[in-house]
Design goal:
Elements lengths: L1 H14 L2 H12 L4 H9 L12 E7 L8 E6 L7 E9 L2 E11 L4 E6 L2 E9 L5 E8 L5 E6 L3 H7 L12 E5 L2 E4 H6 L6 E2 L33 E2 L19 H41 L1
Antiparallel strand pairs: 1-2, 1-10, 2-3, 3-4, 5-6, 5-9, 6-7, 7-8, 9-12, 10-11
């Protein structure tokens, strides 16, 4: 009887998550200093200059394998392209914080079910501004672990284009269906609703270095649709587009290659002229000796 009641409570929590979501958000906001919250509440919601106001972000994904999506809460407070997420599980209509500092990019990551656990892989810039591979493994009981790896140059060519290196199985590439909520708007009116968040057009400060990314190919393979509110957004490569599995030269590299080719041609020309001049002088000396 008791397992049946617990299962019923979990189902009801999943069907009406609003109270649990509000409690999880209240817990998440405790990480912000009171002075920052006060300043964000005082800011106008739209500004033409300076950093935009902090925006709260969230998405849902079942990483424990019980069929009930967990909630990832983050914000645009970070000044790089990734987000440090706080993970909450909803149990009996109550949020349970499972962990902090889960670093995942809103642009998407790899998901794989392996040996009863859920694994997430994300290639992104670390706090030291070096690109590294983050590996997360989530167990059914809510425990999770993190590994950070620095791939070699060959592997980076594939990871920069959202492809696993040859011989590696990271699962399917997925993009979370993220929602956004301006922090100042929420503090001024708790009834403010979340709205869809578009990473590709987001002006938030965590993507300030996006222009420094390696040049992207024109198409990626179709992405997977995963449980828990994740949807793929890939498209087949159009005719004539470069192969995403091959490294594409940077424009500056192509320019340098053209300059190097010009210098090589000039040196070859000088060599030919020099050789012709030397042969002519030898023939003239030989003719002079013969007539003398």
């Amino acid at each position: 009887m008791r397992p049946a009641l617990l299962a019923l409570g979990s189902i009801l929590a999943a069907l009406s998550p609003a109270p649990a979501d509000d409690a999880a958000l209240a817990d998440f906001l405790q990480r912000f200093p009171p002075a920052l919250l006060a300043s964000e509440q005082a800011l106008p919601l739209h500004r033409d200059q300076g950093d935009p106001p902090i925006v709260l972000l969230r998405f849902r994904l079942d990483v424990t394998g019980d069929g009930i999506p967990e909630t990832f809460l983050g914000s645009s407070e970070a000044k790089d392209r990734s987000v440090d997420w706080t993970l909450y599980a909803i149990r009996a209509d109550q949020p349970i914080r499972l962990g902090d500092g889960i670093r995942l990019p809103p642009s998407g990551f790899f998901l794989r079910k392996h040996a009863g656990a859920t694994e997430l892989h994300a290639y992104q810039r670390s706090a030291s501004r070096a690109h590294e591979l983050y590996r997360y493994r989530f167990e059914p009981d809510g425990r999770w672990s993190e590994e950070i790896e620095s791939p070699d140059g060959h592997a980076r060519l594939f990871l920069q284009r959202n492809r696993p290196p040859p011989g590696e199985d990271y699962g399917k590439k997925v993009r979370p269906s993220i929602e956004r909520l301006p922090l100042g708007a929420h503090l001024s009116d708790a009834a403010t609703e979340w709205e869809p968040y578009n990473y590709d057009t987001a002006p938030h400060r965590q993507f300030a270095h996006r222009a420094e990314l390696p040049p992207a190919v024109t198409a990626d393979p179709p992405e997977a649709t995963a449980p828990g509110g994740l949807a793929g957004n890939g498209a087949p490569a159009p005719t004539g587009s470069p192969d995403p599995g091959q490294a594409q030269p940077h424009p500056e590299a192509r320019a340098r290659a053209g300059v190097d080719a010009a210098w090589a041609a000039a040196w070859i020309g000088l060599g030919i002229v020099g050789a012709g001049t030397w042969v002519g002088l030898r023939l003239r000396i030989r003719e002079t000796r013969r007539t003398g």
